Every structure is written in structure tokens, then in C-alpha cells.
Amino acid sequence: RFTEEVGTFSKKTRVTYEFAILVNNLRTRLVKLLLRDQVPLSRNEDVVVKLLDPQENAMKPDVDGILRWTLNLAPQSKQTVKLKFSVEYPRDLRLYGLE
Fold first, then answer.
1. What is the pTM of this model?
2. Parallel, antiparallel, or unpaired for β 66-73 and 2-6?
3. Is the pLDDT higher at 42 or at 10?
4. Could you give the C-alpha distances from 96 to 6, 32, 99, in angstroms and in order?
5. Residue 82 region by backbone torsions, left for phi larger than 0, else alpha for psi between -120 and 50, else beta
6. Predicted local distance difference test score (pLDDT) of residue 30
7. Residue 88 CA to chain centroid, in angstroms?
8. Strands of 48-53's sheet, edge to edge?
9. What are 12-48's pLDDT values in tens digits?
10. ∠ at Cα 7 (13, 47), nearest 5°?
11. pLDDT one-digit tens code per residue, 32-90
């Protein structure tokens, strides 16, 4: 989590969240896995959520903010999936539900 103040005239707060999801296949055979995670959704036009990794042109969240990765894990292998997004909002606005 990284917080910064942005904007020249209208001060805003931008909080960037970055997650690394480690998936382990402990089986002796190939495993096909559907991994799902969610990015926040904003119903307020002053609150802007941007998907940074994976880039939106590579993967787009559905209407509920759900991202889906299809992974093929070889036996005894590991894979890391990264998720990074930012939330930008007016400095005087109080947000709930992100932490």
C-alpha cells in the first residue's frame, strides 16, 4: 500500500495497492485452475479506480469488478499472479471498505 497526494489545484489522495498471489501445485499431475479476485468498484464519480497490473487492455474486470486468470500448473510448480490498482479521491472524502 502506497499513499500519495496528487493534483495541483484540487488536492486528491491516491492510494495504490499491490498484491502478489502465490499459487502452489503440490500434486503429481497437471492442475488447471481458475483464479478469481476483485478490484473495488466506485459508485461515486469523485472516486476513480484504475487497474494497473494486469493492464486493462490485457484483462478487463467484469461488471462486479471480478478478474479471472486461467492457470495451468505443472506438477510441483508455483506461479505468482500480480494485482495492482489505485484509488484516487478528494482529500476531504472519507472512504470505507478498502482496508
1. 0.85
2. unpaired
3. 42
4. 20, 35, 8
5. beta
6. 97
7. 14
8. 2-6, 12-24, 78-90, 48-53
9. 999 999 999 999 999 999 999 999 999 999 989 999 9
10. 45
11. 999 999 999 998 999 999 999 998 777 889 999 999 999 999 999 999 999 999 999 99
Please tell me what DSSP assigns to residue 92. T
How many Å apart are CA 76 and CA 36, to the nearest integer?
Answer: 21
β-partners of residue 24 are 78
CA angle 85, 91, 92 (to 5 degrees): 130
d(CA 76, CA 24): 7
Amino acid 76 reads Q
- Burial (CB < 10 A; 0-12, 13-18, 19+), residue 84, is middle
- Cell numbers 498471489 label which residue? 21
The one-letter amino acid code at 29 reads: R
Helices then strands, each counted (H, E), the chain: 0, 6
Tell me which residue of 27, 3, 6 sits closest to 16, measured CA to CA.
3
